[in-house]
Amino acid sequence: MKITVINGTEKHGVTYRLKEMFLAPFKEHAEIMEYYLPRDCPHFCNGCTNCCLKGEQTCKDAEYVQSIENSLLKADLIVMTSPAYVFHTTGAMKALLDHFAYRWMPHRPAPEMFGKRAVIIVQCLGAGAKSAVKDIKHSLSWWGISKISVFTGALMGDIVWDRLTEKKRTKFHKKMKKLSGKFLRINYTKPAQTNLITKMKFYFCRMIQKSLRRNDPEYYDGKYWSEHGWLEKVRPWKN
């Protein structure tokens, strides 16, 4: 089993501890690849649109983005973590997600993503967890991932792990153990089921791509959809 983890911060705080709790049961029998932001993707997307119009290899940060993407495509389970910064995910996580604009369904989604499973772990001080989760989940769903589980830890007091009460730590540990158990029981030889909402998004994008393909046969995204057979009867969730 392969797990790819994207950490929205390099800080080893509460979010890091929660992620470690989740991963603990997997460590003996899973190959875990972790990335820490911004270290492993240090630059912002500058909106040049080269990735969408000319191909992902033309991105100025392709060496970072492609390394992470290769790991994501090979993973059986994707784990995304982030503390909530002013009610949203970290700037470093947002910068990475911007780099993957070309993998959104209106452009060139990777067929592998339609069978993936993902976990989002977010921690906040009091409030903001839901909006931070939404930042990440929005991208994952438009990549084609249907099976996304979420853990949110809201702290009303100190956000330093060593200062948390034993009661609070135990509560987090029990919840994480339950979530880990859920994903340990999955048979990863079978892809996750693609839900109706994801299929509807696909068919809407397919309609757009068919129109663009007719008007411009050399349009980059249209050629990609055509090569995969998606403008005909092939569907990514049936591969």
From TrEMBL:
Residues 1-146 form the NADPH-dependent FMN reductase-like domain. InterPro entries: Flavoprotein-like_sf, FMN-dep_NADH:Q_OxRdtase_AzoR1, FMN_Rdtase-like_dom. It comes from Eubacterium limosum. PANTHER family: FMN-DEPENDENT NADH-AZOREDUCTASE 1, FMN-DEPENDENT NADH:QUINONE OXIDOREDUCTASE. This is NAD(P)H-dependent oxidoreductase.
